[in-house]
Design goal:
mainly alpha; two-stranded antiparallel sheet; 2 strands
Length: 115
């Protein structure tokens, strides 16, 4: 009686978008913080690429779903994306899908590449 599988599991190769897009991540980091722009605040820390897509528990969204946030709005502040989780979007009064689409289109116009 065998308790363990003797042959290795065959895994599917990762999808192209799941591998990540380094150029897009770097471009997002070069943009100003979305919330600082909307609220007309001075940006005090460098921009971080925030993964903002819909995902399951303990899973990171793909690099297609990135928005530029400063450290305060991304992970550290009391009203940050990491602190509030899904409540962040309503608290910040931001339409996530609209802004994701905006940055993808802006990237395509500026670089000639699609995400």
């Amino acid at each position: 009686m065998r308790l363990f599988r003797t042959t290795p599991l065959k895994r599917k190769p990762p999808k192209r978008w799941a591998l990540g897009d380094r150029d897009y991540r770097e471009w997002i980091r070069s943009q100003e913080c979305l919330l600082c722009q909307i609220r007309v605040l001075p940006q005090a820390s460098p921009t971080e690429a925030a993964h903002c897509g819909v995902r399951g528990m303990a899973q990171k969204a793909s690099d297609r779903d990135l928005l530029p946030f400063c450290h305060e709005h991304h992970s550290e502040g009391p009203l940050s994306h990491h602190q509030l989780g899904r409540k962040f979007w309503s608290a910040a009064n931001i339409d996530r899908e609209c802004w994701l689409r905006f940055y993808r289109e802006k990237y395509a116009i500026e670089t000639g590449k699609t995400v």
